Amino acid sequence: MAIDEYLETEVAVAVVATAVALTPRARRVLRRGIVYGLAGALMAGDAIVSFGKAAARGAQDATASPAPAPVAAPDQPVATQGLGGEA
Fold it and tell me: Which superkingdom (predicted)?
C-alpha cells in the first residue's frame, strides 16, 4: 500500500475501528464517553421537561386566578425633615 492510500477516508475509518476494537484502553475511554454523554443527555431532558411543566403550571395559574385589587395610596403627606429649618 502506498502512503496516499492510508489517507483515504475508508482506510482511516477501518484503522480507527480496529484500534478501538482491539485495545482495552480505547474501549474503556469510548465506553466512558458514551456513558457520560448519555447521562448528560438524560439530565438535559429532565431539565427541559421540568421547565416546561413549571411554565405550563405558571401560565395556568396566571389565567385561573383573578388579578389582585389595586391598593389605595395613603392620604398622609410625606414628612420632610431638615428642609424647612425646623427640627
Answer: Bacteria
* Residue in 18, 38, 36 with CA at minimum distance from that of residue 27: 18
In degrees to the nearest 10, what's the CA dihedral of 20, 22, 23, 26? 20
How far apart CA 61 and CA 65 sit, in angstroms, is 6
- Taking only the tens place, the pLDDT of each residue in 46-70 is 999 999 999 999 888 888 766 666 6
Cα radius of gyration (the chain): 34
Going by the DSSP 8-state scheme, the letter that residue 73 receives in this structure is P
Q: Is this structure's pTM higher than 0.90?
A: no
- The single residue listed with the C-alpha cell 447521562 is 39
